[in-house]
């Protein structure tokens, strides 16, 4: 697994040993960044359920102003990967060792908003609607939430978000949401 674009393109990342984590495949990561294009430039990026940290690290490589990577169980691997590619002490990277739902609640309470939220929770979960609802509260007005899921997972429906697109890559689907009407 490698950073696929930007300043740190081609630099390898360490992955997990074992089956408890499923890193976002390179082709899906590259497709995501190709789809969002220039929106990454100067963005505040949030990587929930960060795993190896690949999405958040790639975001900075491609021009994000800041990337917050939330990972409960493998934050040491995220920190190791950041250092390995040259972002170890970079202020654009913030690694938070916490449950993603606790982090979302904290961001909401503190009024911390993001331009792009990327969530890749364990596929054997039933928390998709909760992730969407909580993420809607911390998105900038023109923000973007992307959920990565198993392709048979139905798209979450939440009144605060509007499904704009979905793309399938093998057994992975990306759901793209924009903020809807907030009354």
Q: Can you put this structure into words, describing what you see?
A:
There is one protein chain. The chain contains five helices and seven strands; from the N terminus they run αβαβαβαβαβββ. It is an alpha/beta fold and 183 residues long. It has one domain: Rossmann fold. Strands 3-2-1-4-5-7-6 form a seven-stranded mixed sheet, sandwiched between helices. The N and C termini lie far apart (43 Å). The model has no long low-confidence stretch (mean pLDDT 91).
List the helices and strands and how they pair.
Layout: H1 26-36, E1 44-48, H2 54-61, E2 66-70, H3 75-85, E3 93-96, H4 100-110, E4 114-119, H5 128-136, E5 139-150, E6 161-169, E7 172-179
Parallel strand pairs: 1-2, 1-4, 2-3, 4-5
Antiparallel strand pairs: 5-7, 6-7
């Amino acid at each position: 697994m490698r950073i696929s674009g930007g300043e740190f393109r081609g630099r390898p990342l360490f992955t997990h040993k074992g089956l408890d984590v499923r890193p976002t495949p390179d082709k899906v990561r590259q497709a995501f960044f190709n789809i969002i294009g220039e929106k990454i430039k100067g963005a505040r990026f949030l990587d929930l359920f960060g795993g190896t940290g690949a999405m958040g690290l790639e975001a900075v490589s491609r021009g994000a102003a800041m990337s917050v990577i939330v990972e409960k169980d493998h934050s040491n691997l995220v920190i190791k990967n950041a250092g390995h590619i040259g972002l170890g002490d970079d202020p654009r990277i913030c690694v938070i060792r916490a449950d993603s739902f606790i982090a979302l609640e904290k961001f909401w309470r503190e009024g911390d908003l993001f331009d792009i939220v990327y969530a890749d929770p364990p596929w054997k979960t039933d928390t998709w609607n909760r992730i969407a609802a909580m993420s809607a509260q911390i998105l900038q007005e023109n923000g973007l939430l992307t959920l990565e899921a198993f392709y048979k997972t139905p798209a979450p429906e939440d009144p605060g978000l509007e499904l704009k697109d979905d793309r399938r890559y093998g057994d992975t689907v990306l759901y793209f949401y924009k903020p809807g009407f907030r009354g």
